[in-house]
Design brief:
The chain contains 14 helices and 16 strands. It is an alpha/beta fold and 429 residues long.
Length: 429
């Protein structure tokens, strides 16, 4: 048993790069616990020594030298202690040898085996943890093991983890054996091993996909300055370069769209809009809403003090400006961190020269509260909230808008008809 134990310890330490002293200490403590459980008492102080060459197990009781016995499990009289150690004195600790019982050898072997197995598992968990910890934020290829509705079991280089539904791109479906890319967000070491937190729904996933395709991005010549995404639907990426001789949009799109098409293949039906980044919020907003033609842009401060913006468009440009369920104008607003209100406008077009106006417009004060849709009668509060979220918070925005057009951006036809009717009634008074 001893030679097998020695071989097992040596092999474990060599293969898993473990400290031999730590493994031996763990085995000694496990054997001590096993002895107290089956042959002694829990109050005993048991010391197990495997020996320098691990060829012989020796078991001792730790006892304190006292003039009078008060605890029979922990104390020893001075006269008895001197038999074991002639120089013993009151207050010293002596180690009293325990005679090994025949059955204890099997118990000790089992305890040692359990510790070696435990240390092996701990070492493997630590190695896997270190393997992935430095790869946080990296794009990794994974394989689907099992696909369910709420979560998908994923295997990444020998480690099984879960891609939760909220971290998937809405609408995508997986099958067993499928290979896909995921972003490793975070690695946590738990009692069950390293837990890999992965996602396909974050903004960083899109950035990592582009970085994989674009050498200039990996070299730092071009970069993503701002990004706004609704996973599975649409994503707007504002890109820039510190090198004036590089076209960042062209670098992201690639020759004949080769680079952006590679990214789109990974995200399915999600639409990707790559635009030039501008420090000026007005320029960035107009670029984000293209190809819609914006007649005029006005920044203002809302009732609660937040910065907002109104964009004025021709009636025929309204649908393309707002986008399906308001996604286009909402994402454009996210790029400049402001809510955008779309207003129908019949006046003259304001000339826009993106290269001529470098400074951001100063916000103006909010228009009178009476023009907000909160004052519409006969419109449910949840409809008001939905329209406001879509950037349609001004009554003037609904002038000339038909119920069928309004129903296309996120509410039912019946609700749209109620809104149009209420707006018409308001404007008459």
């Amino acid at each position: 048993m001893q030679s097998q134990l020695q071989a097992a310890i040596n092999q474990l330490c060599a293969e898993k790069n473990l400290d031999k002293d730590i493994v031996i200490d763990a085995i000694e403590k496990a054997i001590a616990l096993a002895y107290k459980k089956d042959f002694g008492s829990q109050r005993q102080a048991i010391k197990v020594v495997l020996g320098d060459d691990i060829t012989q197990i020796r078991v001792f009781e730790e006892r304190e030298v006292v003039p009078k016995i008060e605890d029979h499990d922990l104390d020893i009289l001075l006269k008895d202690a001197k038999i074991i150690r002639p120089d013993a004195a009151v207050g010293d600790v002596v180690f009293v040898p325990i005679e090994m019982q025949e059955a204890f050898g099997r118990i000790a072997a089992q305890a040692a085996k359990q510790v070696i197995s435990q240390k092996l598992n701990e070492a493997e968990r630590e190695m896997l943890f270190q393997k992935f910890k430095n790869r946080e934020g990296e794009l990794i290829t994974a394989r689907v093991q099992k696909a369910d509705y709420d979560a998908t079991l994923i295997e990444i280089e020998g480690v099984a983890t879960v891609l939760h539904r909220r971290q998937q791109i809405p609408g995508e479906k997986f099958f067993t054996g499928q290979r896909l890319k995921v972003l490793l967000e975070k690695v946590e070491l738990t009692s069950k091993g390293p837990q890999l937190r992965i996602t396909r729904a974050s903004n960083e996933f899109i950035i990592a996909l582009f970085e994989q395709e674009i050498p200039e991005m990996r070299e730092g010549l071009v970069y993503v300055a701002k990004i706004a995404r609704e996973a599975g639907v649409r994503c707007k990426i504002a890109v820039a370069s510190e090198d004036g001789g590089i076209d960042p949009v062209g670098a992201f799109v690639g020759q004949k769209g080769s680079r952006i098409n590679s990214v789109m293949e990974e995200v399915g039906d999600e639409r990707l809009d790559v635009i030039q980044f501008y420090d000026d919020a007005k320029k960035l907003l107009i670029a984000a809403l293209a190809p819609a033609k914006i007649a005029k842009v006005e920044f203002f401060i809302g009732d609660n003090g937040e910065n907002r913006v109104k964009i004025f468009v021709r009636e025929e440009e309204r649908a393309i400006t707002i986008g399906k369920r308001g996604q286009n104008v909402r994402l454009a607003g996210n790029l400049i961190d402001m809510q955008v209100d779309v207003i129908t406008y019949d006046g003259p077009m304001e000339e826009e020269d993106l290269a001529a106006k470098p400074n951001k417009e100063k916000p103006k004060k909010e228009v009178s509260e009476k023009v907000t849709i909160d004052h519409l009668e006969g419109v449910d509060a949840d409809v008001i909230a939905t329209l406001t979220e879509l950037g349609l918070s001004q009554i003037k925005q609904f002038e000339g808008l038909k119920a069928e057009e309004l129903a296309e951006i996120g509410i039912t036809l019946e609700q749209a008809e109620a809104v149009v009717k209420s707006v018409a009634k308001f404007l008459k008074h």
